[in-house]
Amino acid sequence: MGNPKAFLTIRRKEAGYRPINDRIHDFGEVEQTLNSNDRRQQASRCMDCGVPFCHWACPLGNKPPEWNDALYKGDWELAYHLLTATNPFPEFTGRVCPGLCEKACVLNLMNHEPTTNREDEAAIAEHAFNEDFVRVEIPQRNGKKVAVVGAGPAGLSAAYYLNQAGCSVEVFDSNEAPGGLLRYGIPNFKLNKVVIDRRIAVLEKEGIVFHCGQTINIQQLPEGFDAYVIATGTPEARDLKITGRELKGVYLALEMLAQQNRVLAGMEFKKDQLVNAKGKDVLVIGGGDTGSDCIGTAHRQGARSVTQIEIMPKPVAGPEDPKNPWPEWPRTLKTTSSHEEGCVRRWNINTLEFLGKDGRLTGVKVQPIDWKPNPEGGRPLMVEAGKPEIIKADMVLLAMGFLKPNMPELPANVFVTGDAASGASLVVRAMANGRATAEKVCAFLKK
């Protein structure tokens, strides 16, 4: 490293978020950026550890010490080439990755001030596009044709690597534009869709053909391809089929999130089709990232109040997790930008019944619960810990995760990747899985 002792004198500095009173009135990205000098100073904090646990923790195998060094020295182009040697789409992960590498950073162990790898990654990617470092690379064709079904992060990753290996790649997706979860699940205030369009344009110039608005039956795949990659994700959300589920006002999270993104893209919906929180008391059921996205979207739509409940216990506060010590990912309390915008949060709450009048939701009956060890082992047992109560709500958003799809038996030339293979996970893991699947496809085709 150019300055091997910078971590001793330079404190961690994050770009932070736009002011709450400003950002809740639009869907622009909430995260700000540092100037290039501050960003280079933050990159200098990387210690170039003998054992880089950041590299170990990243599903893609990114090498932050290498590109942070280049960034610190002002060689942004080299930083981009080092970064994209392992990560095909750093502009995506630089915005939506939880930063597994940062939690495994030695500086996180020392003083809980890890190197700002995720922000550095995003800055490098943006600089590369602005300075025309992103080159269109058209490989020599090998005569093989591969179809990728699903244009989410796993499908795009597989398509990119297969194309670079020389295959002719065609991507099929049921939505009107590529991106999958990136486009229709993640709100614009976390990932502006222009960022996706910009990368898709590069992929198209490199020879990848996209067929959107086409639903493919994986048991009746299109003919004329040597291999197929199934990257259809986890389309079925976990539902809550209790009394009152049919009431108007109870929605799956993606019904709101996907529609809002489509509205921002210019699509129009009839008034009775809109899933909009304006003037409503909103209850979000589920404490994960999807639930957080619902909170932020509800605020921007003009919700009167937002409450989030979670059936599991409240995570431990603070940077350390006794059950998952460094360098493992700590399962600690997470407060997102959406939570900061205003939200009542409750844990150990079980949902009993949706209440309504004249077919419309008016409230939700819930009950405090607790968990005790199961004497037979396995999942803890849920026990009552308080009397049932009613939470006033005229909109409920179910954000309880997604079900892993059951795949039928498929021919030897069909490969399943991403969430379709593993169940719902992180964007960075889907991208890594897409790359690994592309390698398997190439090995199969060479045989």
Notes on the structure:
The chain has 18 helices and 14 strands. It has a five-stranded parallel sheet, covered by helices on one side. It has a five-stranded parallel sheet with strand order 5-13-6-7-8. Strands 9, 10, 11 and 12 form a four-stranded antiparallel sheet that branches. The two termini are 43 Å apart. It is globular. It has helices at 6-9, 20-23, 36-43, 53-57, 64-72, 76-84, 90-96, 100-103, 106-111, 117-130, 153-164, 181-184, 193-205, 253-264, 289-301, 337-340, 419-422, 427-446, and strands at 145-149, 168-173, 209-212, 227-230, 250-252, 281-285, 305-310, 344-347, 349-357, 360-372, 381-384, 389-392, 395-398, 414-416. It is of the alpha/beta class and 447 residues long. Strand 10 (360-372) and strand 11 (381-384) form a beta hairpin.
Q: What general form does the structure show?
A: globular
Residue fraction in strands:
15-25%
Structural class: alpha/beta
What's the overall average pLDDT, rounded?
97
Helix content: 25-40%
Query: How far apart are the termini?
Result: 43 Å
The largest sheet is: 5 strands, parallel
Task: Please outline what is shown here.
The protein has 447 residues and is of the alpha/beta class. It is built from 18 helices and 14 strands. The protein has helices at residues 6-9, 20-23, 36-43, 53-57, 64-72, 76-84, 90-96, 100-103, 106-111, 117-130, 153-164, 181-184, 193-205, 253-264, 289-301, 337-340, 419-422, 427-446, and strands spanning 145-149, 168-173, 209-212, 227-230, 250-252, 281-285, 305-310, 344-347, 349-357, 360-372, 381-384, 389-392, 395-398, 414-416.
